[in-house]
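Hi there. Long-time user, first ticket. I'm pasting a complex I've been working with (about 111 residues overall). I'd like to know whether the download I got is complete or cut off, because the file seemed smaller than I expected. Thanks.
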Amino acid sequence: MTPLTPSQIVKFLDQHVVGQEDAKKQLAVAVYAHFKKIAFAKAADSEIVKSNILLIGPTGTGKTLLCETLSKALGVPFVTANATSLAQSEYVNEEIEAILQRLIDKAAGDI
Ligand SMILES: Nc1ncnc2c1ncn2[C@@H]1O[C@H](COP(=O)(O)OP(=O)(O)O)[C@@H](O)[C@H]1O
Ligand SMILES: [Mg+2]
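Hi, the file is complete. Here it is re-exported in full:
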């Protein structure tokens, strides 16, 4: 599969998310760079360092929607988890396992 270009990713996001143009561009470029890094690492048989994206903003502005839409554009499994419930839980390990199980289910068992 040829990777989507940043502008193709933005175009896809535009179909589902209103506004948030800066966030769309930043996400698209970061994701594009991430896949490129993976491809280079595979070719060079080297490991990549995990990179993260922190989306900050008021409730209901489309952060989760952006991530969900992005996962559709890329064809990667996606789940959301609430960190507040994790921090309050007495059964932290079980909760984390449950999150991972949901992710594995979304990935149709493909670890
Ligand atoms: N920019 C947007 N474009 C389209 N729908 C949006 C947008 N922002 C929020 N929504 C809708 O409002 C609801 C809450 O959005 P959500 O992504 O869960 O917000 P957040 O994760 O930032 O709190 C969802 O139903 C989402 O589809
Ligand atoms: Mg959210």
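A couple of notes from our side: The chain has two domains: 1-74, 77-111. The chain has a mean pLDDT of 88.
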